[in-house]
Structure formats: structure tokens, C-alpha cells
Design a protein that fits this description.
The protein has 262 residues and is mostly helical. It is built from ten helices and two strands, in the order αααββααααααα. It has a two-stranded antiparallel sheet with strand order 1-2.
Length: 262
């Protein structure tokens, strides 16, 4: 692997640990040395490359620090070199190729299903950094910012097409409040959904408001807190998991608006 990024290294460690994870008691165990040796081999680490070796160690310790791994096999073997996946780590393994706990896989998955603008991408990447570090309030605000950027992009396109067609904008479409914009977009598109392709119509009816509300609601809970823990890891995790589908739906709506809003 040429010039691996931090996210690349993190993903590789997770994948190797997943491959080496014991399927039951009495067999091979997860041990630090075995995982790091395999990671080094796949990266082509050679002696005299301390920067890459230390980059691997940094990601290894970060996975420990943020609770994806924990030391020990059992109470009889509670110390290094043995380690195990925590509940958080096991949740990440369930959808490793697209889980926010694995930023490299998550971004690769997103790139295969949707196009993301530069502003949303910058918020998303910072949000993923927050998520893997356990900063869930910050992660909620960042994914909310990314979602708002996607929605505002769609709004700007709709405004442009309405202006070109000399059609009056629905009330609130140019408002600064994202909830008002969401409602105005819905009011604009819902009466026209009979012209959507069947798949787009079904997704719009089922998911548009639900997607946007889940992410927006989690973001607002973090940004306007009423308790010490206004958001949960599970809620933020859900927001990141549905975000690619929100972007894909927005892309499909943008394609329809570009060709048919007149």
C-alpha cells in the first residue's frame, strides 16, 4: 500500500483483527503482536521506516484509547499481548465497509453511491474524526452541518430552475432557517412526485423528511443542550449510517429538478 493515510491504516488494523478474531474458545487468540505483524507485512513495512511504523502504532493505540479494542482475553489472561473487541468495536465490524468507526471504508462507500459537495465533505470528514475519537456532541454538529449543506445545494438548484422558468418560489424556500427550507422543498416537490420515476417517488415519500429530521434533530440536541448528555453514541451512529442515503436521494432529486422543473 503506497503512502497509506491514517484512515487506511486504521481500516487495515480493524480488518486484520477481524480476520484473526477467534471463532470460539480453545483456538487461536487475538494478540497484539500477531495483528501488528500482519499489518506490517501488508503495508510492506521495512526496517528503517520509523515514520510508517509509528503511524501504525498511533492508530493501534487510538483504537485502544477510544474503546474499539480492550486488553485481555479473559480473567485468567487480563493483560497484553491479549486483546479483544469491545461492544463498540463489534458494532463497527457488523458494517466495517461503511461504518463511521472506519472512516476510510465509510468514505469509499459514500463515493460509490452519491456525489458530495466540497463544503459537506469537509464537515463530514471532521465529523468522522470526532466520531472515532468519541466526541459525539461534536460529531452530531458536524454531520448536521454536512446534511444542511446538501439540502441547501438542492434548494439553490431549485431556486435557479424556478427563476429560469419564471415560476414563483414557494414561501420559505430562500429562508435562512433550515427547517423552513426543508418544509418549502417538500411543498415544492410533493405535488410533483407523480412525475417522479417510481423508485424516486417511493424513496421521497418514505425517507426524505425522516432522513432530514433524524440528522437535524440529533444536531439540534447537541447544539442546544438541555442535559449533560444531549445525544447518545447510538443516535449519532444512526445519523452517520443514513447520511449516504440522504445524499443519494438528494442527488436523484437534483437530477429530476434539473431536467423537469419548468
Amino acid at each position: 500500500m503506497a503512502h497509506p493515510t491514517q484512515a487506511d491504516i486504521r481500516e487495515l488494523i480493524l480488518r486484520v483483527a477481524q480476520e484473526q478474531q477467534p471463532q470460539g474458545y480453545g483456538g487461536p487468540t487475538l494478540q497484539q503482536g500477531g495483528v501488528l505483524c500482519e499489518v506490517a507485512q501488508r503495508l510492506g513495512v521495512q526496517s528503517g521506516n520509523p515514520d510508517l511504523e509509528q503511524a501504525v502504532l498511533t492508530q493501534w493505540h487510538d483504537l485502544m484509547r477510544t474503546g474499539y479494542f480492550a486488553w485481555g482475553l479473559n480473567l485468567n489472561n487480563p493483560n497484553p499481548p491479549f486483546f479483544h473487541f469491545t461492544d463498540r468495536g463489534r458494532r463497527t465490524l457488523e458494517k466495517l465497509s461503511r461504518d463511521p468507526g472506519n472512516p476510510a471504508g465509510y468514505l469509499q462507500h459514500l463515493a460509490t453511491v452519491a456525489n458530495l459537495n466540497a463544503v459537506a465533505s469537509s464537515y463530514l470528514r471532521e465529523g468522522l474524526d470526532c466520531f472515532v475519537s468519541g466526541f459525539y456532541k461534536a460529531a452530531a454538529v458536524m454531520i448536521g452541518g454536512a446534511a444542511e449543506s446538501v439540502i441547501l445545494d438542492l434548494r439553490d438548484l431549485a431556486c435557479q430552475k424556478l427563476s429560469e422558468a419564471n415560476i414563483a418560489e414557494p414561501n420559505g424556500l430562500s429562508d435562512w432557517r433550515i427547517k423552513t427550507v426543508l418544509n418549502a422543498l417538500y411543498d415544492l416537490l410533493d405535488p410533483r412526485k407523480s412525475s417522479f420515476p417510481k423508485d424516486l417517488r417511493e424513496k421521497f415519500e418514505a425517507y426524505w423528511l425522516a432522513f432530514a429530521q433524524q440528522i437535524r434533530g440529533t444536531r439540534n440536541d447537541a447544539g442546544h443542550p438541555s442535559s449533560v448528555d444531549p445525544v447518545t453514541e447510538e443516535g449519532v451512529h444512526a445519523s452517520y449510517l443514513i447520511f449516504p442515503d440522504l445524499v443519494r436521494l438528494s442527488n436523484d432529486l437534483a437530477e429530476w429538478i434539473s431536467a423537469n422543473l419548468k
